[in-house]
Amino acid sequence: MRALFISQPARAYGEINVVMALAEAILAASGEAWFLVSPLAAKISAIKYPDRTFELNGYIFDNQVKFWRIVKKMRPDVIVFSAFHEILRPNRKLDCPLVDIQWLHDALEIKTPFVFIDFIAHVPIMTEIVSCDACSSRLGGTVLRTFLEKLWVILPCPLNEPARVDGRRGLPYRIAPLPYEQNDIQRMTMRSRFLGENASSDDILILRSGSNWQSILAEDYGIPLYSHLGTLLNFYLAGVDKNITIVSISDRHELIAPPGSKLRIVNCRNLPPFDYEQLVLAADLIITDNEIGYTLAASVGRVPGLVLVNSYTIEDLLDSIKPAGLLWKVVLEMERQRPGSVYPYRIFPLLADSNELCNKGPLEAGQYQGLASLVPETIRLGRMPSSPFYRAEIFGGRPTRIFLEWLLLDPESKELSSKLESEYLSRLAQIDDGVHVLERILDLDDLGRHTVLQRPDR
Amino acid sequence: MISAAPVLILSPPRSYSSLACAMLGQHPQMYDALETQIFDVSDMMDWRNRFGVGRHDGDGLRRLVAEVVFGSQYAATINRASRWLYHRQSWRPNEILNAIIDKLHPLILVEKTPLEKGDMRVSLENRAKIFPMARYVHLVRHPFNQSRSLLEHLNRMAISEGATDIYDRFARITDNRGSRSLLDPQHFWQKSNSCIMDFLSTVPESRKIRVRGEDLIAHPDRTLGDLVRHFGLRSDTRAIEEMKHPERSPFAFIGPKNASFGADPKFLRQSKLRSVESLKVTLLGPLPWREDGSGFTEEVCELAKTFGYT
Questions:
Q1: DSSP strand E in chain B: where?
Q2: From the CA of B186, how many Å to the nearest CA of chain A?
Q3: With contacts defined as CB-CB under 8 Å, which chain B residues touch A49?
Q4: Is residue B1 within 8 angstroms of chain A, CB to CB?
Q5: pTM given for the model
Q6: Which ipTM value was assigned to this complex?
Q7: CB-nearest partner of A51 from B1, B69, B106
Q8: Domains of chain A with bracketed CATH
């Protein structure tokens, strides 16, 4: 199989990591793979495949010429998009544009199947956009709909539920055999690298990771959360009587421990994919504010993941938390630095929509169940079940602190995680890998319900 | 983004360079160009004066720009390519080629302008100045077949429209040493190949290889495999198989009227790799194109033997 992967997102690393896994599986099966990707994604793919990585730029004409040149030269059997949904958003100015009406016309002329990797249930949103004539007319209306009737959807798991979901469009596939393998030497090497050579086996390694696009948006909005995250984590981990090192991975910001903190923070720029994966597996806990990120997917079955969210408005928080306490000071300081910077979100810094807002009312001390909970079944607006992870309130105070202590110290938490993740992994084991799913698309012509739009004859 | 240095095919004309270039260009890591005629000019104003619109020698660069910058080779995109070049008259040859190479990145450009016009030594040195890290393929052909092919080609050109410098081309292969001037390309064959060898003597082994055109056709797997391995490129079966399809080159056809050529017209009309019947040719005996009945000179025979010809 010869596959061309197109990854346009210019602000996120996650997509290219998932794309790389599929491309590598194709190469391992004696196929061929090429990447036509944004400069950011090219930084990842070119590490391993410099001669297979072509870069998109900001000019649609350049990108189209390059696309057709690659198609002519490499003659791919399948063309796989990782972010086709972005093209449809009416107000979105793309960093790496490729598709316009002419491109869609030309694409319909070739026999090569097009495939869309739907990471997080974008198809329902795409369907909504296309049903709006005003939105779809800029891409030709009919020609766009015809293209979407031919655009196959595949669903990477984890990130999506492997088992059948009624009404869902797309073929689920296993990103990789999970859990990822890590031998003792690899684990020790990675732990020593960040904990130090003389670390004890009791020392705790926490990976704190967010997505590049989250940092960029936070900067754009001026939200100072990351400036205070070190202080918050220090507060929540103060009761854990062990040496704790937090490795924070970001190209754009650093976590800072408050003065006098016993917490050790190692700030690190983005690592090469293999090193990053090894770090994920060697950690004792993943802390993130992105429940749809690749990091949680990579950690399935090996390391528990905790997603920090905020379900409350600033007024709710100020009414509830202890005045003049640390949380109170942080919340007010954030608000002073940038009014409006404390608001409810599920995925930082995206404002939660009304479905996601918390109706719990003011916080109450000891309300542990409601504030930090196991989330075994929901991801992305409740549309798709996914791999298990934990969720805790970032301004949750004592309950969040207790929950973190439970996660890091109580063997019961490990048992519970293990049980839930095993169930997920057994569902995952029942589906095909990406190569087989693409082969099915190439072999079969009766997969109409797995295209973005239903074909009219079905 | 650092683009890879190109692969430059060095040869006299009629040495299978069109075929070789198109074959190499099908390798998954390479991309073939036509004859750019860019190494003998000081800037693109100079190029335009010598190879501008209406002159077939400029077709190769116009088609290359049309394909790489504008995505196709229709009359309209050739016109856009001509304008693209016109607007860049002040650019130096390296700036033009680097603009194209950047667009092709990470594919490696393969170029094949044969050594024919102007001072060959200067032309070669220009290549080295523009691309200090270029890789070179010295492409050779038996002097008998190369000479005969060149004579046939020039005779065809002499009666066709749009041919440029036709008198200069005949002058280059005229042997004036005897009492009568004779058309005999063997000295041109010797001079151009010797010049290439002198130039390559200063280039590290890892960046040069000599290939016999006949081997490329008769034993493509082995010859192409050796070549790409030598340059550190993919040499798996699939990559070699791709190179056996020169007809897939984006340039393997007669272009539109405003830029028809850019390579051997015979190749453009029939670009598939065919196992041509190897004519039994020899370095010995009289040459049919010489009325005086003489054969190859000692110098030519000696050089041809170093290439493995008999």
A1: 7-10, 30-32, 108-111, 135-140, 174-175, 182-183, 208-212
A2: 38
A3: none
A4: yes
A5: 0.84
A6: 0.92
A7: B106
A8: 2-176+433-450 (3.40.50.2000), 184-428 (no CATH)
